[in-house]
Amino acid sequence: MTTQTVADPTATIAQAPLHQRIGKAAYRVLELMTESAYQGFQARTASRFDYL
To answer: Its domain of life (predicted)?
Structure first.
């Protein structure tokens, strides 16, 4: 009888090439910055039209 081990998801991430890991991290940072900027812009535009 053989045993099979479940692959650890973090192990597959660590085995990815360095440039792919850097690219994914950079994309996530850019996504967070864009979302933050959009929310700030949305708040400013909403408050600008509250006075009308």
So the answer is: Bacteria
Handedness of CA 19, 25, 31, 37 (dihedral sign): negative
CA 45 from centre of chain: 26
The 10s digit of each residue's pLDDT in 28-52 is 999 999 988 888 877 776 666 655 5
**Cα dihedral sign for 10, 32, 24, 18?**
negative
Exposure class string for 33-50: b at 16+ Cβ within 10 A, else e: eeeeeeeeeeeeeeeeee
At residue 14, the 3 state secondary structure works out as helix
Residue given tokens 């081990």 in the structure block: 5
